[in-house]
């Protein structure tokens, strides 16, 4: 969006946001992108209370990428939400392009990455959750966001010598944007998917699109569960998902199980959202058919 004068675009020091091409679809708030969901993701990605999310979910995926793509390269992060993982990858020296399909999440990502004041703001991310509370303390937990600040994080590691924005944000539905012929379709050295595979309607179509974005030798890193959305056409088990990838010519170097709390650590409330996720690393061994 424009600055206060209407025509001048605001300075974006951490993330460069591409314009949404005409006709590109985005996700409706009814499926993903409500304010309640934004609050939980601010809590998850940009508060010190959820440092465990980085340690249990993001750090293992980053470590696998460093292991299988140690010399940098261009990395795509689909469904990046508020872009914490994407920015962490940039601090490791990768050139990161991140995609998000929710207009609401894109708006808040722009705020967190580029516009948040130097002093973190107080937020009550669980005030709307009236269930599973031991006391008022859980429901009215207050946090400070963003912490760390995005400019502070962007300046760490490889970012210390970087000039210009750390990451590029591309808006739009992932499949429509990155399919062959789509406005974002091109080749990347690696793709990192995090809690993403189960968000689509057609997993076979998604794998085909992801495959088309990698050349031979390209790396796919994945961490996440299979908590399929109700609209999913195929609710596959993990062995069936693996079979699709192997059918496209991928060799898997690791398949591990990692215990992930999605945001609040288990035990803080009577119920918390936790998963036993798959952590995988694979390399493409043959050219795509598309």
Descriptive overview:
Helix 3 (84-91) links the parallel strand 2 and strand 3 (95-100). The two termini are 36 Å apart. Residues 2-6 have low confidence and may be disordered. The radius of gyration is 19 Å and the shape is globular. With 290 residues, it is of the alpha/beta class. It has nine helices and ten strands.
Key phrases:
290 residues; alpha/beta; eight-stranded mixed sheet; two-stranded antiparallel ribbon; 29% helix; disordered N terminus
Largest sheet: 8 strands, mixed
How many strands in all? 10
> Order of SSEs, N→C?
EHHEHEHEHEHEHEHEHEE
> What's the alpha carbon Rg, rounded to whole Å?
19 Å
Secondary structural class: alpha/beta
Question: What is the strand arrangement across the widest sheet?
Answer: 1-6-3-2-7-8-10-9
Q: List the total number of helices.
A: 9
**Terminal CA distance:** 36 Å
Q: Whole-number average pLDDT?
A: 92
Q: Choose one word for the global shape.
A: globular
Percentage of residues in DSSP E strands: 15-25%
Helix content: 25-40%
* Low-pLDDT runs: 2-6
Entry summary:
This protein is an alpha/beta fold and 290 residues long.
Write the layout of secondary structure elements.
Layout: E1 15-17, H1 35-46, H2 51-68, E2 74-77, H3 84-91, E3 95-100, H4 103-115, E4 121-123, H5 136-139, E5 143-145, H6 150-154, E6 167-171, H7 174-178, E7 188-194, H8 203-212, E8 214-224, H9 238-247, E9 250-261, E10 274-284
Parallel strand pairs: 1-6, 2-3, 2-7, 3-6, 7-8
Antiparallel strand pairs: 4-5, 8-10, 9-10
